[in-house]
Amino acid sequence: MTRSVVKPQSLDGWMAREERSRLILAFARVLYINGESTQQTVRVVKRLSNCLGFRVTIFPRWGELEVQIVDSEGNSVSAIEASPTGVEMDRVASTLRTVEKLCDGRLALANVMEAINRIAEAPPAPTWLFTLAAAIGAVALAVLFGVRHLAAAALIFGTAAAGAILRRTLARYSTNIFLQPFSAALVAGIVGALAVRYELSSSLRLVAVCPCMVLVPGPHFLNGMLDLIRGRMNLGAARLIYAAAYSDCDLDGAATRAHASWYVIAR
Asked: According to the 3-state scheme, what is the secondary structure of the chain?
């Protein structure tokens, strides 16, 4: 199979340097803040710039993306706020498809900024789907951990579903990145304490642990380790610290609140 060679689309005459910077930063930011790895983000942005006929170097940091553009007019440096705390892989996939269309000539340059802005503002997965995925994932973990009673599995399902709904509700009112996992873990801890207090099953603590395990930010741990391997020490360490702090809201917090709730209930 022969790869098709696409001639770079010319930006001269219709897009100023500032607009070029905004275009590149817009694509890089959507990938960066929605869970894509740093290396893949850099690769996609470089491919995009090559398709458009200029060279770009990207410098990712925690909280900021900086790009240096080299074209016929010289060099220019631009930056944008970007914290890689989210995981919205549908936006990532849509961005990758948009780059493919642009480089293949199936998307006009005049429409590309509108396309990436639409992707950046795309809503997350529906609440019902998010809730169902969290609940099923918690039950699946419980099965792996050895749950034996249907009542315990049902309680885990309901607890994880309640935590997911609470997270989506809080997201409408607060941008605090730790409030959602903290609140979901609080629900799991209280329900787990009640399960222990009233001996609802033989695998009681799974009721508290499994709904929290699905909240562990696996992509952030993975991306952090990949950054360390690639030599991006500061960014990799920042990602891992964030992932560890996020997980602490889930696991250690849930266990502490479960024991505290049990003590209060027991009295």
From this structure: CCCCCCCCCCCCCCCCHHHHHHHHHHHHHHHHHCCCCHHHHHHHHHHHHHHHCCEEEEEEECEEEEEEEEECCEEEEEEEEECCCCCCHHHHHHHHHHHHHHHCCCCCHHHHHHHHHHHHCCCCCCHHHHHHHHHHHHHHHHHHHCCCCHHHHHHHHHHHHHHHHHHHHHHCCCCCCCHHHHHHHHHHHHHHHHHHHCCCCCCCCHHHHHHHHCCCCHHHHHHHHHHHHCCCHHHHHHHHHHHHHHHHHHHHHHHHHHHHHHHHHHC
